[in-house]
């Protein structure tokens, strides 16, 4: 029986699992791993497949069975982290945006960062004013279809491709004009480099927004960038704190705390899991961008003085070490396989690799995703889906990095239209009604749909009963289990109870320690005086001595039993 169990255990340990990783160009890499394989093993396999040496900027993202996204930890088992049934599906994404992407050593690294920022532009995470948006889109066209050719590119050719959540005819003409007149002769590598240089100047470069609420219950987006911590609220950047000014990050339940030298910022995440993910992202970003050496990394705890909380330690190299290591790379530049963009008249989809999908103008939506493609896009950005851009592309972001130079400027206008968290608070959709939920969320939050949207969604509009049921679930999801004020009261009561329990426990321990020291043979005046009191003598003969004899008898019986066996 023992040999059978051992053989079964060894077979379990040797079991192989299939893993599929979705890359930045929407291709897939499939491999098999052992049950106890660490995240670092899978990541190294992937980087070897991509011929990538500057790999510290990237990571692997996955969504757990509770629809919460995570970054794969390289020091832990892949199977234990995913907690889902194989085959496993993950995504390869940029985890730490380079502070200066144009300074990256190898072209393959810049190309991968280019693909990531192109995704950010499409999903609305990278917001910009109209002139910048047109220039960025023109760089993408030049990089992927080459110079303008009247024979291949008829009038309105730029409208066949999707660069942003929303387009306007004016913006499309501007994109085509720049592509025709200003970018001729640029190679794909040059266009991608110019794209990165322009994107890096935008306020929302590197922003992966986490939806939260402030202490007043107002919606806000929290994000970590190469330059510091950012809070986006309404149409303003209400906080920008440089990394060297952040003294501590902490979370308790759904409450996230950021300590600066003078203030403490408090925000509430949708779920405790989302709050913990936010905290871990903050710890990793602060360590990566702030520290000089990885030897300075310390294990961080979310606990207070008396209670144990979550502990986390960043396990990678820091930005300065990565740059120093990149400077030492000496090899022939690896070949990059780029393919031109092929317009398609198919239904709206998301393609961020070497191709950009296109859709007819009459079928454009505020969010250009089908149900199946929306599954992947929101899974890629679950709990931090981008906000909607302006309706006709009139103004995406009238504020560039010039405001970042002023460290004292905490509030800056980032857009004419306020950020809407309606789509971002939704969990990763797994049901076939994901699109209806997104449209419904916009109706609940007062957002209007275009005529095209209404026509397209009319055929699949849920019934009144379904709308009411889904609306109730969505409101419950958005509002949580209570307002921030109620959560603060509950946390205060819990803190008081914890303090009382800790005080009582300390007093009990001190009492036991006093009894042991008094009953010992220590010849100290204080203990001699206690031993001579009638109360102590009564306690000694009536309670302590019988209890000591009972323990001694039990210990002897256990020892004799062990000897006999």
UniProtKB/TrEMBL annotation:
<keyword id="KW-0472">Membrane</keyword>
<dbReference type="InterPro" id="IPR018979">
    <property type="entry name" value="FERM_N"/>
</dbReference>
<keyword id="KW-1133">Transmembrane helix</keyword>
<feature type="domain" description="FERM">
    <location>
        <begin position="17"/>
        <end position="293"/>
    </location>
</feature>
<dbReference type="InterPro" id="IPR029071">
    <property type="entry name" value="Ubiquitin-like_domsf"/>
</dbReference>
<feature type="transmembrane region" description="Helical">
    <location>
        <begin position="496"/>
        <end position="518"/>
    </location>
</feature>
<dbReference type="InterPro" id="IPR000798">
    <property type="entry name" value="Ez/rad/moesin-like"/>
</dbReference>
<dbReference type="InterPro" id="IPR035963">
    <property type="entry name" value="FERM_2"/>
</dbReference>
<dbReference type="Pfam" id="PF08736">
    <property type="entry name" value="FA"/>
</dbReference>
<dbReference type="InterPro" id="IPR011993">
    <property type="entry name" value="PH-like_dom_sf"/>
</dbReference>
<dbReference type="InterPro" id="IPR019748">
    <property type="entry name" value="FERM_central"/>
</dbReference>
<dbReference type="Pfam" id="PF09380">
    <property type="entry name" value="FERM_C"/>
</dbReference>
<dbReference type="InterPro" id="IPR000299">
    <property type="entry name" value="FERM_domain"/>
</dbReference>
<dbReference type="Pfam" id="PF00373">
    <property type="entry name" value="FERM_M"/>
</dbReference>
<feature type="region of interest" description="Disordered">
    <location>
        <begin position="380"/>
        <end position="402"/>
    </location>
</feature>
<protein>
    <submittedName>
        <fullName>FERM domain-containing protein 5 isoform X2</fullName>
    </submittedName>
</protein>
<dbReference type="InterPro" id="IPR014847">
    <property type="entry name" value="FA"/>
</dbReference>
<feature type="region of interest" description="Disordered">
    <location>
        <begin position="340"/>
        <end position="362"/>
    </location>
</feature>
<dbReference type="InterPro" id="IPR019749">
    <property type="entry name" value="Band_41_domain"/>
</dbReference>
<dbReference type="InterPro" id="IPR019747">
    <property type="entry name" value="FERM_CS"/>
</dbReference>
<dbReference type="InterPro" id="IPR018980">
    <property type="entry name" value="FERM_PH-like_C"/>
</dbReference>
<keyword id="KW-0812">Transmembrane</keyword>
<feature type="compositionally biased region" description="Polar residues">
    <location>
        <begin position="383"/>
        <end position="393"/>
    </location>
</feature>
<dbReference type="InterPro" id="IPR014352">
    <property type="entry name" value="FERM/acyl-CoA-bd_prot_sf"/>
</dbReference>
<dbReference type="Pfam" id="PF09379">
    <property type="entry name" value="FERM_N"/>
</dbReference>
């Amino acid at each position: 029986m023992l040999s059978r169990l051992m053989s079964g255990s060894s077979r379990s340990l040797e079991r192989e699992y299939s893993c599929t990783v979705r890359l930045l160009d929407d291709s897939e890499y499939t491999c098999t791993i052992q049950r106890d394989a660490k995240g670092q093993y899978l990541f190294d396999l992937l980087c070897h497949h991509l011929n990538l040496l500057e790999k510290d900027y990237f990571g692997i993202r996955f969504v757990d069975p509770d629809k919460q996204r995570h970054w794969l930890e390289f020091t832990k088992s892949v199977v234990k982290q995913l907690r889902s049934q194989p085959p496993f599906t993950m995504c390869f994404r940029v985890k730490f945006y380079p502070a200066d992407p144009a300074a990256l050593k190898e072209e393959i690294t810049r190309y991968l960062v280019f693909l990531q920022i192109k995704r950010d532009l499409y999903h609305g995470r990278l917001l910009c004013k109209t002139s910048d948006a047109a220039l960025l889109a023109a760089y993408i066209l030049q990089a992927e279809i080459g110079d303008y050719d009247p024979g291949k590119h008829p009038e309105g050719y730029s409208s066949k491709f999707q660069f942003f959540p929303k387009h306007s005819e004016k913006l499309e003409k501007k994109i085509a004009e720049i592509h025709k007149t200003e970018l001729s002769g640029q190679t794909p590598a040059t266009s991608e480099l110019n794209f990165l240089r322009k994107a890096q100047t935008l306020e929302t470069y590197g922003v992966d927004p986490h939806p939260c609420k402030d202490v007043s219950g107002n919606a806000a987006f929290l994000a970590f960038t190469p330059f510091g911590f950012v809070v986006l609220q309404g149409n303003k950047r209400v906080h920008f704190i440089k990394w060297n000014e952040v003294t501590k990050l902490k979370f308790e339940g759904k409450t996230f705390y950021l300590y600066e030298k003078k203030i403490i910022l408090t925000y509430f995440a949708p779920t405790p899991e989302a709050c913990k993910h936010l905290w871990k992202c903050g710890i990793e970003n602060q360590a990566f961008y702030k520290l000089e050496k990885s030897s300075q990394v310390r294990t961080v705890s979310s606990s207070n003085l008396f209670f144990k909380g979550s502990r986390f330690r960043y396990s990678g190299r820091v930005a300065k070490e990565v740059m120093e290591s990149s400077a030492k790379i000496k090899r022939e530049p690896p070949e990059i396989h780029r393919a031109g963009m092929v317009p398609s008249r198919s239904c709206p989809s998301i393609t961020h690799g070497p191709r950009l999908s296109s859709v007819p103008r009459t079928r454009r939506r505020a969010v250009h995703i089908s149900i199946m493609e929306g599954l992947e896009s929101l899974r890629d950005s679950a709990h931090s889906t981008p906000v909607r851009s302006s309706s006709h592309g009139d103004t995406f972001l009238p504020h560039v990095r010039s405001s970042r130079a002023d460290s004292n400027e905490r509030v800056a206008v980032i857009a004419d239209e306020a950020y809407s968290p309606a789509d971002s608070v939704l969990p990763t959709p797994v049901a076939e009604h994901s699109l209806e939920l997104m449209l419904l969320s916009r109706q609940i939050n007062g957002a209007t749909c275009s005529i095209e949207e209404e026509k397209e969604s009319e055929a699949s509009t849920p019934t009144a009963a379904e709308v009411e049921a889904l609306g109730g679930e969505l409101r419950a999801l958005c509002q949580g289990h209570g307002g921030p004020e109620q959560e603060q009261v509950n946390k205060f009561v819990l803190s008081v109870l914890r303090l009382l329990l800790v005080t009582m426990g300390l007093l009990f321990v001190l009492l036991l320690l006093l009894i042991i020291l008094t009953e010992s043979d220590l010849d100290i005046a204080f203990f001699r005086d206690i031993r001579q009191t009638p109360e102590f003598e009564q306690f000694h003969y009536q309670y302590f001595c019988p209890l000591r004899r009972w323990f001694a008898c039990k210990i002897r019986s256990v020892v004799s039993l062990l000897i006999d066996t």
